[in-house]
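Sample pair:
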Amino acid sequence: MGDLISVIVPVYNMEKYLKRCVESILAQEYRQLEIILVDDGSTDNSPAMCDAYAKQDERICVIHKENGGLSDARNAGLAIATGSFIGFVDSDDWIEPEMYKDMYEAAKKHQAEVVVCRYAEVYPDRVVDGSCNELVVLTREEVLNIFICEHPRYKIYNSVWSKLFKREIIGNTIFPKGRNSEDIVFTTKAFCRLERCVYIDTAYYNYVREREGSIMNGFAGDRMLKDEIPFWREHIACIHQVKEELGQKAEYYFYKRLVGYYLSTRTTAKKQKELKRYATALLSEIQKDKARIQQIYNCDFVKKSDKYRMWMVLNIPEIYVMIENVYQKLIIPFRNR
């Protein structure tokens, strides 16, 4: 008999998907589970479904609470979790039967505080799964490098649902209530504390995407400025405490991300004029850090092409957007012919 794993499932108006999600957890080959369904003030049939599952399987515990958002629901689950390991599953997704067995066994075998798996992206018309079924054991510095620098093969992202955490590594960390992109700092803090991590390049988690890509809208723009960008800055501060060079790399990839956000928002704003203020705000976010950006972009690990892009964004942003759009529309399709 192994250690208890607490699996926290926030539920808000998910009657369409809840059966698939919960039954995938009940079907786990690893049986030592505490399944915490957190009904976050649902107004559909989700609460009744949660209660019915609790009657069906004694491993299931249900919390009914007022709506407080995803972070608050996860915190409610963490507050009562008794497992030695913690996992998260979003209620519109589902997991493969061997997920927690393989991840738990990897944690025990390699004495790892965190185990990460790849996930499959499930679209209405297809599934994207780049698994190579490889297992690698990583030090703190190695996992942070992959996390920060976007490894060409391994997919270690900030989402908590693709991970199994040893309870001690979480400590008193909670998710910030009422905020979006909450996984960024939670995962960063865990990675900064661990000694050993295992990455399993097998898609045990099925992440549902209702549509291709994402179209910028007002909500997304507010979320980016008020939540995501501040969380990435906190992510950078945490990593600087581990190692200065890693912190510099985190800054570099943050500024690259801001440039990408600016280009995407500025381009979309041509069709949705109300988004222009987000593009302006993103450009201000970049330009206010001009002195620091110039320091970071002098580091040896910064690509020359990124140096040119950043110079244009800082000095001739409108021309940069024009050049990038021409490149995307004409040059890339020509190269791919």
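The chain has two domains: 5-208, 218-335.
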